[in-house]
């Protein structure tokens, strides 16, 4: 809103800045009336009506919903509500962090999405990490949902529109033998899925064991069987889940090169990105990582040092739609493609899809059940439309998701106890 005011100078009514006023300033002959503002001109019904017309929407409450996932509902004084998802492996901590953030955003305008992202991140003295990333993600998604509903358009239209008409998907296969996993991969390929992710070592997971050498040999065996089953037209994604030490990741890369995988995913633990240099020096198979990155800063080293060919942020873990777009923009500068990690329900999947549709350097998006029957929707619905291995733009304003709060209230929150893997000697191994 533009304000104008008239200033009086001495006994006359000449505008400030005349020769007489300049002389007064030079001689330091100030008097109080020189800077008296006629406040009466800033009052009155016309100004009040203008302020009322431009009054912003306000956030009135943020409700955390912990069921099968972690969701938030952001309510406003205009009756428009937005929903977001922050499901991760520490749901109780995420719920607590959302409660910590509430005082910083209640009463604010939900359309100031970037301002509120910065407030949630920077008003905390201790920043970053998976809990903060997921809490901000849930709130950020809900704000985009509100803005889309307010304007009556899908979120992807607010992000610059469609950079592509559809998003390629990759699906998952599992199996306890090379024959079983190859058969499952063939079924996905026959359904039109053109990229398949697998990891192996499911049998040893069942007995809480991980042995690097045994796992490498099994992944080589599985890769050979899957390639033979699906032919050369399907891309293979070898998932290591961050389990290997660098030496064993190198061993794996050497043995599977002849099967032409699209990339190796998370070959080593994520704490020290520079360890990827060692793998880089021994193989030209593309590398991918990033699902355990929780904001743009976690991706800086991967990109500036050329350590990966694909980055894999998760919209529910990395700070939401606002932040995944910044990560993608950083990657674009280095000609690195984005493959969003996505293992959540319909709400998180919708947010990931809206972002993927609008970002220019997205290669494809993860959808574990692609090529299979969709799992039952939980409190959020619907799943995206999938045809021939591609996801199509959601319809409806905002994220295009319906949220059943009554159903959510009836769904118990499951415990989140992850597998406790050990090596043969009893030492701790990563899941």
TrEMBL record:
GO terms for molecular function: galactonate dehydratase activity; metal ion binding. One of its GO terms (biological process) is amino acid catabolic process. Its EC number is 4.2.1.6. The keyword NAD does not apply. Residues 178-286 form the Mandelate racemase/muconate lactonizing enzyme C-terminal domain. InterPro entries: DgoD-like, Enolase-like_C_sf, Enolase-like_N, Enolase_C-like, Mandel_Rmase/mucon_lact_enz_CS, Mandelate_racemase_C, Mandelate_racemase_N_dom. Pfam families: MR_MLE_C, MR_MLE_N. SMART domains: MR_MLE (SM00922). Keywords: Lyase, Metal-binding. It is an enzyme of class 4 (lyase). PANTHER family: D-GALACTONATE DEHYDRATASE, D-GALACTONATE DEHYDRATASE-RELATED. This is Galactonate dehydratase.
